[in-house]
Write a structure and sequence with these properties.
The complex is a heterodimer. By secondary structure, chain A is an all-alpha fold. Chain A contains 11 helices and no strands. Classes of the chains: A mainly alpha, B alpha/beta. Bound molecules: adenosine-5'-diphosphate and magnesium ion (MG).
Chain lengths: 259, 246
């Protein structure tokens, strides 16, 4: 596709625009070129969809993985008398290795390895899954540490009360300890979600066309970096602020029992 | 196992925390409907003994027969048996994120598979008995200590336990609230509940207990009916202890 020239654009421009100073004309031209010409807003919209899908998918996966890892480690540490079951010891070792590897290597490198060594996706859907899984696995390691700190923060007397009613270890975690822990760790968990949302901007390295990738595409098409990238920053900022709003509402609701 | 009317039979119960041998061999049979009060100096192992009875602490030796099963055996599924042993803690330990009603119904619904209505009916009638029916929708921290402890007692009762264990249930309460909690426990005793109670309330022990036991140096140093126990103590350490607390 040929590049839209300023000279061509201004010829067809309405009268009011011609009266504007040249700087304003140039800026409006860039906006037009970035979003309206050749329906480029659709590129941003499609990219946004990918970003949101990857974020939500990885978030769900990360929370599930994080909960499981945190509960394994807490279960392991809760056995103080007698020999720990072999399964639990293996799971705990696996968990420690997992967390060490994920936290010790950059997200970008993890994406490269998953995308080009382990999963090697061939279709668009497979690439999307690859992105979600990689980010989910990454997030899970961080979420597990956050959840664990939350589980530790709940007094032992609470789980004893649960156990004394006849709940087993996992039921006690689920009904008694976890709900209280989540309330305590919501701010930290919120930070983790925001980090995850921003980290999705790296998925372009496995050829996922997220909103960052699309902004780069538009820059290539228009030879104009300012408007696409500033717009990109604004898009992320709005999403992060929206997420923050949702989280603070959730926190208020959870704090209901504290009054 | 022994006679039918024995609910808990403890044989040679031992518990050590590392090098610290706290219980050195406790033997006791607790009969159905019996109220046993446990006294002893601070740090003598009263809580440890009580917590061993439902295996919140795993015994390091001996047996605890409950309904004919040795629950000290780690291959036994302890969770089933704990459903039938209610426990009341010094610090109440209500679940702060649940309403009073939810505190009481969660275990019966999830473990006894009662329907929500059945469980709530049961909880509300128990709350009514301790004068707290109107607080069903409150959260624990909106209640006074005495009210919380009464809820903790009926929460345990919601599971229909065969025995109730109390670990200093009034020690964390302001003095003016002790009476209301002891009153609930007295009524429970009258109704024939089997109870094991660790307490410093000697008046309560004299009035309600069928038997008082004195734990010292990891064993039951003396046990007797409350009258004999308080009026005619034998063990020198018990005499010393009673002289201090009475
Ligand atoms: N979880 C534990 N770990 C280590 N030592 C403990 C633990 N619980 C109790 N103990 C020790 O056991 C002894 C008896 O404690 P406890 O049963 O609480 O006494 P009491 O209830 O009669 O005051 C104390 O020396 C205490 O330090
Ligand atoms: Mg104690």
């Amino acid at each position: 596709m040929s590049v839209l020239k300023f000279a061509t654009w201004i010829e067809e421009a309405p009268n009011w625009l011609l009266k504007m100073p040249e700087g304003v004309q140039k800026f409006l031209f860039q906006l037009y070129q970035t979003f309206i010409h050749a329906d480029r807003w659709k590129l941003f919209l499609n990219g946004l969809k990918i970003t949101i899908i990857v974020t939500i998918g990885a978030l769900i996966l990360g929370i599930i993985i994080g909960l499981i890892l945190a509960i394994i480690r807490t279960a392991y540490e809760s056995i103080t008398v007698g020999k720990k079951p072999i399964i639990l010891r293996l799971l705990n070792t696996f968990t420690l290795i997992y967390i060490t590897i994920i936290r010790g290597t950059p997200m970008m490198v993890q994406l490269l390895i998953m995308g080009f060594v382990i999963m090697v996706p061939k279709s668009d859907t497979a690439t999307l899954m690859c992105g979600i899984i990689t980010l989910g696995i990454n997030s899970g390691a961080y979420v597990s540490e956050v959840v664990r700190s939350g589980l530790i923060s709940i007094p032992k007397s609470q789980s004893e009360a649960g156990r004394s009613l006849g709940f087993n270890f996992y039921q006690t975690m689920w009904y008694v300890v976890l709900p209280q822990a989540i309330k305590n760790i919501l701010p930290a968990l919120g930070n983790e979600m925001i980090t995850l949302l921003k980290d999705t901007s790296l998925v372009s390295v496995i050829a996922l066309r997220d909103v960052t990738k699309q902004a780069q595409n538009v820059q290539n098409l228009t030879y104009n970096a300012l408007v696409p990238y500033i717009s990109l920053a604004v898009i992320y900022l709005v999403m992060v602020m929206g997420l923050q709003k949702i989280l603070s509402m959730l926190e208020k609701r959870l704090r209901k029992s504290d009054r | 196992m022994t006679a039918d009317n024995i609910v808990i039979s403890v044989k040679g119960l031992k518990k050590a925390f590392g090098e610290n041998q706290v219980l050195k061999g406790i033997d006791i049979d607790i009969k159905k409907g019996e109220v046993v009060v446990v006294i002893g100096a601070s740090g003598s192992g009263k809580s440890t003994f009580l917590r061993c009875l439902n295996c919140l602490e795993d015994p390091t030796g001996g047996s605890i027969y409950f309904n004919g099963v040795d629950i000290a055996d780690i291959s036994v599924d302890i969770n089933i048996h704990r459903q039938k042993m209610g426990m009341v803690f010094q610090q109440f330990n209500l679940f702060p994120h649940m309403t009073i009603l939810k505190n009481m119904t969660i275990a019966p619904i999830k473990l006894l598979k009662l329907s929500k209505t059945e469980a709530e009916d049961r909880a509300l009638s128990l709350l009514d008995r301790v004068g707290l029916k109107d607080r069903a929708e409150s959260y624990p921290r909106q209640l006074s200590g005495g009210q919380q402890q009464r809820v903790a007692i009926v929460r345990a009762l919601c599971m229909n336990p065969t025995v109730m264990l109390f670990d200093e249930p009034t020690s964390a309460l302001d003095p003016e609230m002790v009476g209301e909690v002891l009153e609930v426990m007295k009524n429970l005793a009258k109704e024939g509940m089997t109870m094991v109670i660790v307490t410093h309330e000697m008046g309560f022990a004299k009035e309600v207990a069928d038997r008082v036991i004195f734990i010292d140096d990891g064993i039951i140093a003396e046990q007797n009916s409350p009258k004999e126990f308080f009026e005619n103590p034998q063990h020198p350490r018990l005499k010393e202890f009673l002289a201090k607390v009475l």
